[in-house]
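Worked Example 4.2. Consider the chain below.
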Amino acid sequence: MKKILCLFCLASICQNCLATPVRVTYIVDGDTFVGDVLLKDETEVLSVKVRIRNVDTPELHGNCESEIRRAEYAKQRLEELIPINSIVEIKNIKNDKYAGRIDANVYDSAERDVGLVLVKEKVGRAYNGEKRKSWCD
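Applying the procedure from the previous section yields the following structure tokens:
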């Protein structure tokens, strides 16, 4: 409960912040990671799950072998873009539809929008909350 309250506070306080730094601690899949949020008052909110806004990548527990292979590649590519222990910046923070997770635009150390990079490289698809399309051929 305490973690969910912290996430709610983070989303409501920082949604209009210019950027909030996050230390990447774990890559969940091609469009989600876990990180420690570093607030301006030097408070750390540990183990925040962040879903990268505007991109959808295949699921690791996909519906077919090709989706699973694509999902593994998407996770690997995200690990390259935002390695463990790297600092990324998140902007436009909102609560996600799933409790315990936030949505945000994520920027890597080169100040690239990670979601847009994944879409441009065709690792993921542009996504704005609509019904997800199948990744199976």
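The chain has one domain: 2-124. Helices lie at 2-14, 65-81, 114-120. Compare this with Example 4.1 before moving on.
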